[in-house]
Amino acid sequence: MRLIFPIGELESDLKLSKISGNLEKIKFIAIVEISDLGLVTDIALLEVGEEAELLPEIIMELEPDIFVSDKIDSNIVEALVGNGTKIALTSSDILCEAVRDLLLGRARVLPKGEASLKFAN
């Protein structure tokens, strides 16, 4: 399973980086691969830089199973809805905590195809 996390503040220890659902603050995308056993098998980081307006397209090119954030921008919701990507909202804003929340069932996973702009902040 491929998880995508928008990163607003990168830390030297990647797992302590802050996630951000604010489109203007996203500087990186963390791509986390999870095995069928629920183990993290790979983590990659993609620098977005000043390409925030292209972020929805960048995310779709990565073909995520789930987009995970503490909140979500309406432009990202529009790109994900109808494409089969699930959206998970977590109360955690630290990458490792957000991964843990999702794996432990603490994140709110919006059903495929049922996410709408009402979930956008």
Walk me through this protein's architecture.
The protein has 121 residues and is α/β, with parallel strands linked by helices. The protein has helices at 55-61, 74-80, 95-103; strands at residues 2-9, 18-19, 28-34, 40-47, 66-69, 86-89, 108-110. It is built from 3 helices and 7 strands. Strands 1, 2, 3, 4, 5, 6 and 7 form a 7-stranded mixed β-sheet that branches. The longest helix has 9 residues, at 95-103. The protein is globular and about 35 Å long.
Features:
121 residues; alpha/beta; Nucleotidyltransferase, domain 5; 3 helices; 30% strand; disordered C terminus
Query: In which range does the helix fraction lie?
Result: 10-25%
The rounded Rg comes to 13 Å
Q: Which CATH architecture?
A: 2-Layer Sandwich
Number of strands: 7
Largest sheet: 7 strands, mixed
Strand content: 25-35%
Low-confidence blocks of residues: 113-121
What's the helix-strand series?
Answer: EEEEHEHEHE
CATH class: Alpha Beta
Helical run tally: 3
Mean pLDDT: 84
Distance between the termini: 26 Å
Overall domain count: 1
